[in-house]
Amino acid sequence: MDNNDLHSVVFQRKSIRKYDLTPLADSTMAEITEFVRSLQPLDATIKTAMKFVSQTEVHHNLLRIKAPHYLVAFSENKAGYLTNIGFMLQQLDLFLSAKGIGSCWQGIPRPTNEVRASSELEFVIVMSFGMAKEPLYRNSIQEFKRKPLDKISNTIGLDDLLEPVRLAPSATNSQPWFFTGDHRLLHAYCVKTNFLKALIYEKMNQVDMGIALYHLWLAAQVAGNSVTFGQNDEAKANPPDGYYYICSVESG
Ligand SMILES: Cc1cc2nc3c(=O)[nH]c(=O)nc-3n(C[C@H](O)[C@H](O)[C@H](O)COP(=O)(O)O)c2cc1C
């Protein structure tokens, strides 16, 4: 499977919430495990760990989606760690979808104390996966409920890069991203939330930003451009109204 395969599913994928609870074949799990070992970070200086667990190792609550497998993501808590996890796990979301396996980011469920204690790193988020008991793909772009491009960017002529960003999944489908700049240097911003909302959404929004940045990275790769991520003081000091700075994307 290559970047073209992953990029193709950006235009079809959807969150899967109904699963066949039969565990995946060992050979399939081995392939998924190998892919997870190869996940590319946005910031390689941040320590992360991934653990596969079963249904009984994720706390039961009314909102929990029952799936045969869950990936639990842990990370060192340092600047950019939530965005880094978003960037990494979105690779798995697309890989699973491309392999015909359903998945769903899970911002609410938490793994058991034992699972959380099994890593010295901070628990960040869970992703459920397994064979879907509902259609795996959307039939057309129109089935995505998303903001139009001009609400997520004021750039001109970058539709090929930003359409995959527009279609990215986000917690409660909030689509917190905004991009400014041009084809050489793009700046990524995240919406500011009020105090009450921030308690719940601030962390998830930063995970969402990593998901969007992975879709952007993938679109650039497929178009034959490589992009690098960094910090830009001027862009940081001048966010659009209602947004704060995450990072900049340099083409080169
Ligand atoms: C960080 C994050 C957390 C999420 N948490 C949940 C969750 O707890 N429960 C759920 O059913 N869906 C969850 N989702 C799925 C979103 O609701 C979904 O991605 C969004 O509505 C867009 O739909 P789509 O993924 O089908 O395109 C989450 C998505 C993200 C990115």
UniProtKB/TrEMBL annotation:
InterPro entries hit by this protein: Nitroreductase-like, TM1586_NiRdase
Domain Putative nitroreductase TM1586: 7-220
UniProt keyword annotations, A-Z: Flavoprotein, FMN, Oxidoreductase
Pfam families according to UniProt: TM1586_NiRdase (PF14512)
Keyword Flavoprotein part of the UniProt annotation: yes
Top-level division of the source organism's lineage: Bacteria
Coiled-coil ranges (or none): none
Annotated protein name in UniProt: Nitroreductase
Lineage: Bacteria, Bacillati, Bacillota, Negativicutes, Acetonemataceae
